[in-house]
Amino acid sequence: MAAMMLNAMRRCSLRPSWAMRFGELSSNNVFSLSVQTKSKKTLARPGVKNIVLVEGVRTPFLLSGTTYADLMPHDLARAALQGLLNRTNLPKDAVDYIIYGTVIQEVKTSNVAREAALGAGFSDKIPAHTVTMACISSNQAMTTGAGLIAAGQCDAIVAGGVEFMSDVPIRHSRKMRKTMLSLSRAKTLGQRLGLIGSIRLAHLTPELPAVAEFSTAETMGHSADRLAAAFGVSRLEQDEFALRSHTLAKKAQDDGLLQDVISFKVPGRDIVSKDNGIRPSSMEQLKKLKPAFIKPHGTVTAANSSFLVNTRHTHIQNDILIVSCFHPGRDFVYVSQDPKDQLLLGPTYGTPKALERAGLSMSDIDVFEFHEAFAGQIMANLKAMDSDWLPRHTWVGTPPMEKFNLWGGSLSLGHPFGATGCRLVTTVAHRLQKEGGQYGLVAACAAGGQGHAMVIEAYPQ
Amino acid sequence: MAGARALGVLSRFTSRRYALFIGNNFRTFSMAPALLARTHVNYEVKGDVAVVRINDPSSKVNTLSVQMQREMTEVMNEVWANNAVQSAVLISSKPGCFIAGADINMIQACNSPEEVTTLSQEGQKMFERIENSPKPVVAAINGSCLGGGLEFAIACQYRVATKSKKTVLGTPEVMLGLLPGAGGTQRLPKMLGLPSAFDMMLTGRNIRADKAKKMGLVDQLVDPLGPGLKSPEERTIDYLEEVAIECARGIVSKKIPLRKEKGRMQKIQDHIMSYGFVRNQIYKTVHGKVMKQSKGLYPAPLKIIESVKTGVEQGPDAGYLAESQNFGELAKTSESAALIGLYHGQVACKKNRFGTPQKEVKTLAILGAGLMGAGIAQVTVDKGVHTVLKDTAVAGLARGEQQVYKGLNDKTRKKNITSFQRDSILSNLTGQLDYRGFENADMVIEAVFEDINIKHAVLKEVEAVVSPHCIFASNTSALPIKDIAAASKRPDKVIGMHYFSPVDKMQLLEIISTDQTSKDTIASAVAVGLKQGKVIIVVGDGPGFYTTRCLAPMLAEAVRVLQEGVDPKKLDGLTTSFGFPVGAATLADEVGIDVAAHVAEDLGKAFGSRFGGGNVEVLKTMVDLGFKGRKSGKGCYVYQPGLKTKEVNPDIGDILEKYRITPNPAVSSDSDVQYRLVSRFVNEAVMCLQEGILNGPLEGDIGAVFGLGFPPCLGGPFRFVDSFGADKLVEKMRRFEAVYGNHFTPCQLLLDHANDSSKKFHK
User: Fold this and answer.
1) Which of B225, B242, B243 would you mutate first to test chain A, the one with the most A CBs within 10 A?
2) Binning pLDDT at 50, 70 and 90, where does residue B266 land?
3) Which residues form the Thiolase N-terminal domain (chain A) (predicted)?
């Protein structure tokens, strides 16, 4: 167990002080922990492998169409992978497998994990695959890796996520595609001319990637607005939370707490080393914004939404990548529910389940990192967790705000769908180290009415 | 019958899903407590906005009853007198219903047209005060907003509606032979323009919230909410109220303008409409269309046009007066009484009088993927019932599955459901060629070929594989159920479920029980039918049951009329001008000449010479020549795909010539031919009641109108006897009897009614 973990440690040539532990240590490992008030001393269980997060890095999150404009998704992934190698001094053949999460695929690099790994100079003997699960794609990448380690397939995994919004695949219309495909099969000049002649103006309308939920045809912002209304979340509460997120993010950035960000020399451009979406504003300015989705009486605005989801309204997007090298534990859950009315309630359903699995209570958790898709979504989830919404036996209470997303969140840092999960986990790790806590909890919602929650334990010093 | 298409007026009934007028029979509460405390309308002042809440405690829906109107007047007076109140919001506390219309019993209780006119004028006055209210009134609409409810809403200054599926707006009065009598005919044309207003009032169709917003009928939409701190229904109403209050404040502070900027198209339309001759042209066109569809048998649409015209051309005073007077006149017409009777019947036939079945049908298997089988699958699968469609051949199964898919896909294209819903509904359908999984079926409906031997064979096959609780239902149009059940090991589980083609359009389901059928089996069949959205009559067993038995003599008479040299087109004209939505010759083609011949022969054997008339050989010869009706492309008419007009089949002239009968001029006038057709139908219906096939005259009327297209304006055969007079009908029949014999012998029950004019089928 522990050997396996140490084995992994050795290969990563990292000082254990840098590593975060997911899951449990075998009980014969004697560590004296300073925090004694927990309902459980450790999540470690005998005979079960521990999964350890070794390091997590990310390229800065930038608004779309800014410095990263001319790159491709795998370029970002490549930069992060190289950054990880640099920071960990990892040999290029040290890992057994590479997994990436992504949402909007660049069709040329549909297995972006492989392209990035090759480009980053990893050994071409390391297999790589790409997973997708909307906003929790990189969570899925991490837990898939955890599964491979737990199953004894691998000792060291690189898991990450990438999302690149400066360029998205815009397709020809279905009619046009059909015509073009027939054209390639046409044998005679007459057939070809006939097909070309059949092209009408309507054929030329392009198809943009869908912003709406496929099953319900509702956009996420629209659903968030309805969810906020269902839980009686006011516009004021949402704006206040958004302001909090930006203020905390700004402070964390200024204090140099966002250690996971690596500098990245963009070809043909400057070196970027800071996220550029953090913009603390004032309540007066936030109040002026008009609702972005439900007009005229909605409460979700561009300012209280994370900025990937409402690209149309804010014209800002970002591109990022995080890679975390870690070993997964078992104390994570995936949940799913009604994609229409409960689209964004993943954290509400996931948190009690994850805590139950870990045998912990809400008060045991020192660090909370929830994915902030919308301020209204966070507030609705908090209200739901505080209400009779859940069956009584699963009621666990709400996370205290003094432990909640203290370094900003998706609202202020940005939300590259495929990469946010890795950022959350890495942030929990860094916060546990910084704040000296023992347990952390990550929770996120995703399109399709899905959600993810994971309990993380600080690696004993 | 296998196929009876309802068109025209009847089809307007089929789209009805929401109650307009709900007969409010809860009149037991005394007046004394009602004076002390208001029970139906209450209000609460929230800041400077009065929230007026409507809730009829005695009913599932709100209706504009006397009590409701009085309390509303009181509340509005208090609101107007309260200086702290700047505006008002009108909202219903009932989920799924704003106001479903006026109280129908209130109208029916009036004794004269004048009384109804007064009623209408009181409503007009009340809404006029709302319209002229110095404090803006916002109607917050969630659920059905129909008839008087809609007229109330459009009298308000602003309308906010939820986008819920249950939110529908409409003026369905025309379907009850009435008109919107509380200012509707005057306000709607102003709001929507003449064409849209006519369309709404003359079709009576329900308009969904998003469409209503586009038309300008509502000003703002609110999304329904999912579960949150409260149940979705409750929270949606609260949310609607919050938004409506904001709107009310916005109107007071002039942030929300009440006069909307008109679009260019609107301006152009208004300009065109300002010419008198354009408007006249519209009146003329609409009038022409109405006459063509209704054959002048329905007075309500004409009165609607008249009321609108008076208001637009002669000003509001004359308009409102015309509206109230026309409303009074219409309320006392026999057509309105007939349509209201049908409405009540329809409501009654949507209830399960056999109670809740012991076991809910969760898996339904259908044998035969033909037109009927697939049609039954189509109306079942989208109700969340696992549906198994079994056929014996791949080609037949593929055709059937395609029919189900097409039905759902058409709904997707009309945006009634999303493509995702379509796919998830279809996941409930299993197509197969064998009896795999039949042990899980709770009910099996067979829709195989109409042959007793085949029916027996499938019954035995099914009973060998299904579990003991499974019900076997036969979708036969004429074979007696007890004959089918004779081959069964458990005849208590055998029942008849006679669907009408096309199953997804025809509302009627005729359920046939034998002496051996258990109560629970009937309850289960009715429950399935109700789930499928059907109007259900439960009848006794016998050759042709009720519907087929009534239709057969009429078709026999139609054949005789053809043999007497009447052209099929002329025959159709005579029947449609009597009020049948489909002419007799066309109906025969729709049903299928082969089916008609088959039925005529079977029932002829069962009932003897009484079912004679036309020569069955005419039908048989047609079948031999391949003229099987619409399905074969030729019958009485020639059907060409893509062509709407149809020509008389030139080849049937020779057949008819061969079987030519010389008409007797004494009984061959147009009117006589009509009554020859109708009286045989009616006589047979009354005989079904006499023999106990029918449970009551109400079910008889519903079955005839919704299954066979009996003129809705006459309200069904029994109401027709009541209003026409049994004695007069018998007198006509005696005259025909003298010429044709026992085909026209009136049955005993009809004679009883003829001899005693106080006897009525409907009280």
Assistant:
1) B225
2) confident
3) 51-308
Tell me the C-alpha distance between A296 and B247, whole Å. 10
What is the phi/psi pair of residue A267, to 5°?
A: -55, 130
Structural domains in chain B?
Answer: 41-332 (3.90.226.10), 363-532 (3.40.50.720), 547-755 (1.10.1040.50)
**Burial state string for A201-218 with b = 16 or more CB within 10 A and e = fewer than 16:** eebeeeeeeeeebebbeb
Model-level pTM greater than 0.90? Answer: no
CA–CA separation, A97 vs A85, rounded Å? 14
Q: Tokens for B397, please give them.
A: 């199964």
Cα–Cα distance, B50 to B87 (Å, whole number): 6
**How large is the greatest C-alpha to C-alpha distance in chain A, in angstroms?**
83
Q: What is the mean pLDDT of chain B?
A: 91
d(CA A234, CA A238): 6
The per-residue pLDDT for B714 is 95
Is-contact B613 B24, C-beta < 8 A?
Answer: no
Q: What digits encode the pLDDT tens for the residues B322-369?
A: 999 999 999 999 999 999 999 999 999 999 999 999 999 999 999 999
A187 CB-near residues (< 8 Å, 6+ apart): none
This model of the complex carries an ipTM of 0.86
Phi and psi at B197, nearest 5°, equal -65, -45
Distance from CA of A414 to the nearest CA of B (A): 27
**Distance (Å, rounded) from C-alpha A238 to C-alpha A178?**
46
**What angle is formed at CA B410 by the lines to CA B404 and CA B416, rounded to 5 degrees?**
110
Strand, coil or helix: B727: helix
Residue B238: pLDDT above 50?
Answer: yes
Tell me how far apart the alpha carbons of residues A25 and A302 are, in angstroms, rounded to a whole number: 44
- Which residue is it, tokens 């997303």? A405
Write down the pLDDT at residue B749. 96
Q: Which residue in B has a C-alpha nearest to residue A345's C-alpha?
A: B228
The identity of residue B502, as a single letter, is P
Strand duo A450-457 + A51-53: pairing: unpaired
- Contact call for residues A191 and A425 (beta carbons, < 8 A): no
* Cross-strand partners of A171: A207
For chain B, the straight-line distance linking the first and the last C-alpha, in angstroms and rounded, comes to 30
Contacts of B509 (CB under 8 A, 6+ apart): B497, B498, B499, B500, B529, B532, B534, B535, B536, B537
Scanning B193-275, the segments in alpha helix (DSSP H) are 194-203, 209-215, 232-252, 264-273
Question: What secondary structure letter does DSSP report for B741?
Answer: -
Query: What is the per-residue pLDDT for A330?
Result: 55
A232, closest residue in chain B (CA to CA):
B229
Average pLDDT over residues B436-458: 94
Asked if the Cβ–Cβ distance from B232 to A341 is below 8 Å, we say: yes
In terms of DSSP H, where are the helices of B25-147? 31-36, 66-81, 104-108, 113-131
The CA dihedral of B210, B214, B218, B219, to the nearest 10 degrees, is: 110
User: What would you report as the CA-atom Rg of chain A, rounded to the nearest whole angstrom?
Assistant: 23
| pLDDT beyond 80 at A172 | yes
Yes or no, beta carbons of A229 and B420 under 8 Å apart: no
Lowest mean pLDDT among A402-416, B7-21, B386-400: B7-21
Catalytically annotated residue among B463, B510, B590, B699: B510
Structure letter (DSSP) for residue A401: G
CB B69 within 8 Å of CB B58? no
Segment A426-442 shows an average pLDDT of 91
Contact check, Cβ <8 Å, A387/B225: no
- Greatest mean pLDDT range, A74-78, B156-160, B418-422: B156-160
Is pLDDT of B136 > 50? Answer: yes
